[in-house]
Design brief:
The protein is of the alpha/beta class. 21% of the residues lie in helices and 46% in strands. It has 4 helices and 26 strands. The strands form 3 sheets. It has an 18-stranded parallel beta sheet that branches. Strands 1, 2, 3, 4, 25 and 26 form a 6-stranded antiparallel beta sheet that branches. The longest helix has 66 residues, at 2-67. The chain is elongated, with a radius of gyration of 36 Å.
Length: 417
């Protein structure tokens, strides 16, 4: 009986000893795990705050641009930020690696979000934060530019063939700010379609090809044409008469391929042609490119994008040329004295401009000229007169409303998402 109790006591002791061993092993294992978890948590915490500091550093740099007085820096920032993430900061140390990307998204017509995503890695842990900076967008005030007794302006530079009449002004990069990029208040094609005022409206869908004599407008009326394509004039020695006042809005391009006389018996103020070139073709307005043609045009051309290329053998032109494009070429070459150029205003501040006006008998008048770089051909006719006192040989130079640039501001602390 005694043996049984001793054996039972031994078994019980072994069981208790085993439980103690298991418990102590669990306790040590738990302590090690907790320690590892603590270290992991420390690494994650460090990664998080490094990521936050990266986002805040980029945010501070952005906000500094909005505190400075020069709005050009803000415009450049908004223009250069992509709609997909771009890396702007990368840093690696022995403790962590940091990457910061920024991008923008359009929220509405008066709101843009700048997003800053910052990711930090430390000891096989990684944390990311995204800061959202709401940017308010308001319209700047439109500016009225009037023309008169002012010189030809070459905004940036000039070639050796610069028109030398003693009143050319080269303003350089700093002075360029006086002449905004947008040369006129230009509605979108859709806005013009909805807002244009006219007694008579014509909608032409697709290309408008003119291959015969034609009449635009109606006597004593204001007629508006909307061309949802290109205008192609492919009619040899034809006449287009303009009655009343005519405004033509062209979604595509305007191409004169053959000899044509447009509004020859009218006034330049009666015809305005707005060329949108919404597909961004290389040429927005062209006449006679690669081919000698004779053409007459009394009116005003507004070209939103693309090259303006007017190349004629005999050119009878009265009116203004206004362009947002980067190149403008005007040529006439005839010795018969039958061409007459009276251009009151050539306003293309972004354009490299070449005036190749030749001929021994004809007088050619140019009024106010603004271009990025202005030159003329070596054989410029000595009968070509660049005269600030005779704008365009009597063609009136209307003032231009320059569209106000958008104004960007930060009025919010932003938020993390």
């Amino acid at each position: 009986m005694m043996k049984k109790r001793k054996g039972s006591t031994l078994v019980m002791a072994l069981m208790v000893f085993s439980v103690l061993i298991i418990f102590s092993t669990f306790t040590v294992s738990s302590m090690v795990t907790e320690n590892k978890q603590s270290i992991y948590h420390q690494h994650k915490t460090r990664a998080y705050y490094v990521a936050r500091s990266g986002a805040e550093a980029v945010e501070t740099a952005i906000r500094k641009l909005f505190i400075d007085d020069d709005p050009t820096d803000r415009e450049a920032l908004i223009a250069n930020i992509s709609t997909t993430p771009d890396k702007v900061l990368e840093e690696t140390t022995q403790d962590y690696k940091l990457d910061v990307d920024i991008w923008k998204e359009d929220v509405s017509s008066d709101k843009i979000n700048i997003l800053i995503n910052s990711t930090a890695s430390a000891n096989e842990t990684s944390e990311s934060v995204t800061k959202v900076l709401p940017i308010d967008v308001t319209s700047g005030e439109d500016e009225l530019i009037s023309f008169g007794d002012k010189p030809i302006i070459a905004l940036n530079s000039a070639s050796q063939n610069l028109i030398d009449k003693g009143w050319v002004e080269i303003v350089g990069e700093e002075g360029r700010s006086k002449y905004p990029e947008y040369v006129f208040q230009y509605q979108s094609y859709g806005e013009a379609f909805n807002n244009a005022e006219g007694d008579i409206k014509h909608n032409i869908y697709g290309n408008w090809t003119i291959s015969n004599n034609a009449t635009w407008g109606s006597e004593g009326r204001n007629t508006v044409y909307f061309i949802d394509g290109d205008v192609i004039i492919d009619s040899k020695n034809s006449n287009i008469n303009v009655l009343g006042k005519v405004d033509i809005y062209v979604r595509g391009t305007f191409n004169i391929k053959q000899d044509i006389h447009i509004n020859k018996d009218g006034l330049s103020d009666n015809l305005n042609i707005y060329v949108y070139n919404t597909n961004n073709n290389e040429y927005g307005l062209e006449a006679g490119r690669g081919k000698k043609i004779d053409f007459t045009f009394y009116g005003n051309f507004y070209v939103n994008t693309g090259v303006t290329h007017l190349d004629g053998h005999k050119v009878d032109y009265k009116g203004n040329i206004i362009s947002n494009g980067d190149k403008l070429y005007f040529k006439t070459q005839d010795n018969s004295g039958q061409h007459h150029v009276y251009i009151g205003l050539v306003y293309a501040p972004n354009s490299d401009m070449k005036l190749d006006v030749q001929g021994n008998s004809a007088y050619n008048y140019f009024g106010y000229i603004v271009g990025n770089n202005i030159e003329h051909a070596e054989k410029l006719s000595d009968k070509t007169i660049f005269d600030k006192n005779i704008p365009g040989g009597g063609v009136s130079i209307p003032p231009i409303y320059v569209e106000g640039k958008p104004v960007f501001s930060i009025n919010s602390p932003g938020y993390y998402k």
